[in-house]
Amino acid sequence: MRKALAAEHLTKAFGRLLAVNGVSLEVAEGSVHAVIGPNGAGKTTLFALLSGALRPDRGRVFLFGREVTHLPPEKRVRLGLSRTFQVPQVFPNLTVKENLQIALEAARGLSPYPWLRRKDRLAVEERIQALLERLGLEEKAQRTVGELAHGDQRIVEVGLALSLGARLLLLDEPTAGMSDEETWRTVELLKVLHREEGITLLFIEHDMEVVFGLAERVTVLHLGEVLAEGTPEAIAADERVQAAYLGEVVRG
Ligand SMILES: Nc1ncnc2c1ncn2[C@@H]1O[C@H](COP(=O)(O)OP(=O)(O)OP(=O)(O)O)[C@@H](O)[C@H]1O
């Protein structure tokens, strides 16, 4: 199995709180992997360690077989990792097309000037069209992103990640705050990206229907540690997992 991502014994403390405590995780290339856990389990902190937004106190991170523990986020992006957020990181005042164009030109090291070489401009134009189709955003290409529905803004953010050449997407609650219809459309889109573009997906999710609809493997975090890992079915049947969630409900 070729690994898109591996984390070894990652630990991160905030003061005396061990937010992530000795977490190891392997994500096979081309797989779909969910990270779940009660509030405060350490999921977001783990993603920050994997993307390079935070440095671990201990432990190592590998991307496609290469150690990246000490690389900043932008270097990890160049190796094929992109992270999306609950609040989409897009250029809200620009159109959908302009957003994709900026990311594509940046990824190709092209200068953002109108006198781009014709060959480069055509290549970018072609890729923009292909992405708009892939994302189902052709009709919204000229719309300002800040005016789009939340679900569409998050899809644009996925488009930016793809424009930057992502092979591994870290998605922080990809369907949070979405209507049922938007949730369904997002799940379908992620499936297509996985199946047809071979993109590896690692996502944090609270919605168990989404986890079951998408994930092949599930890692459960609890109090900063890996409580369990397995198929969605095995995880749903795991008594320790049920107890961890029950504890959350009881604590209120
Ligand atoms: N920058 C920070 N400074 C101090 N404590 C933090 C910081 N970031 C997170 N924490 C704490 O670390 C713990 C893990 O937080 P984290 O956000 O990673 O959990 P989570 O599983 O993503 O939770 P949620 O599902 O609520 O988003 C929590 O107790 C949180 O309060």
TrEMBL record:
A Pfam family that the UniProt record links to this protein: ABC_tran
Biological source species: Thermus composti
Domain of life the protein comes from: Bacteria
PANTHER family: ABC TRANSPORTER ATP-BINDING PROTEIN (PTHR45772:SF3), CONSERVED COMPONENT OF ABC TRANSPORTER FOR NATURAL AMINO ACIDS-RELATED (PTHR45772)
Protein name per its UniProtKB record: ABC transporter ATP-binding protein
Keyword field: ATP-binding, Nucleotide-binding, Transport
Keyword Transport: yes
GO MF entry, a single one: ATP binding
Keyword Signal: no
Domain ABC transporter positions: 5-248
